[in-house]
């Protein structure tokens, strides 16, 4: 057999094999439509909250300052515990003030004796002067001595009262009931009066105050909205929420107490204070927290999940499902965010159904198998 004949036979076998394989190959099945989660556009009233950073204070935060100088003899409370009004907190060495009181009492006794003598002398001089047994000069001198003794009595009694007050200041008592902090002094420390000399601080935590600042622009916008007739923001200040540093929402609802009388010219902001009940004493002074205040109300707003929106260079689009289960990309206008959703201002209706997307296989014109899910803004979808 020649080489040429062998080559022809080989080509024939290869061609026959390829034809046989192609005849045996099965037709590939058509791809099934993608199963995509679909949500319906929600229409509801929305109360939009603005977030402000604030700091907490007690209902009353009273600093305890010494009113006399001396050595701390004892601490009569448990640091970080509850104290009651009038409870003894500190004692300052009373010996110098007791000695001063004794001295003043002795001086008062001397003045009282002198008063008794000058009064007796004057009372004797009066009838003698009428009989001309003594001169008018002697009578005037006796009266002057009596008047001087009377004035000395008043001064001595004032000194006695002051000495008693100073001795009383050696016992430092709680001016209010509340939670006391860590002592700034210890037994044996020397203290003296003054604004910078602080022994401790007591906070009344029955209610707490939270102070936060709001920009002048935001303040003006809210003020104008509230003063409108039939404004939806009327009463919004009576329902203020507090978000703690761990992200949890404080269970008690607060209300705005007041706003400062002026805009701070250095920051362009106004200070506002809100009050919250604190029955469990969870809130302590000095905490940083976020205040959530309703600053806008949208009636019959259209809401869609944020993750259903495709945003590219400031253009927002969503996949809208039609009655034939086909999706088409549609451009929309979004407003403020509300929890994990967007408020849609243009491009959708309350009857539209939105495909969640999340896959590169989904394109405009695709036929899908919709998986309808219920959702509530701010909650996990079912």
Q: What can you tell me about this protein's structure?
A:
The protein is an alpha+beta fold and 382 residues long. It has four domains: 34-46 and 299-372, Beta Barrel (conserved putative lor/sdh protein from methanococcus maripaludis s2 fold); 49-58 and 206-298, Beta Barrel (Elongation Factor Tu (Ef-tu), domain 3), CATH 2.40.30; 67-91 and 173-198, OB fold (Dihydrolipoamide Acetyltransferase, E2P) (Beta Barrel); 95-168, Helix Hairpins (Orthogonal Bundle). Helix content is 27%, strand content 36%. The chain has helices spanning 3-24, 95-130, 136-168, 216-226, and strands at 34-40, 42-64, 70-75, 82-83, 88-92, 171-173, 178-180, 190-191, 200-215, 241-243, 255-259, 269-277, 288-305, 310-312, 315-321, 327-338, 341-346, 353-355, 368-372. It has a 15-stranded mixed β-sheet that branches. α2 (95-130) packs antiparallel against α3 (136-168). The chain is elongated. It starts with a helix and ends in a 10-residue tail after the last strand. The mean pLDDT is 86.
Write the layout of secondary structure elements.
Layout: H1 3-24, E1 34-40, E2 42-64, E3 70-75, E4 82-83, E5 88-92, H2 95-130, H3 136-168, E6 171-173, E7 178-180, E8 190-191, E9 200-215, H4 216-226, E10 241-243, E11 255-259, E12 269-277, E13 288-305, E14 310-312, E15 315-321, E16 327-338, E17 341-346, E18 353-355, E19 368-372
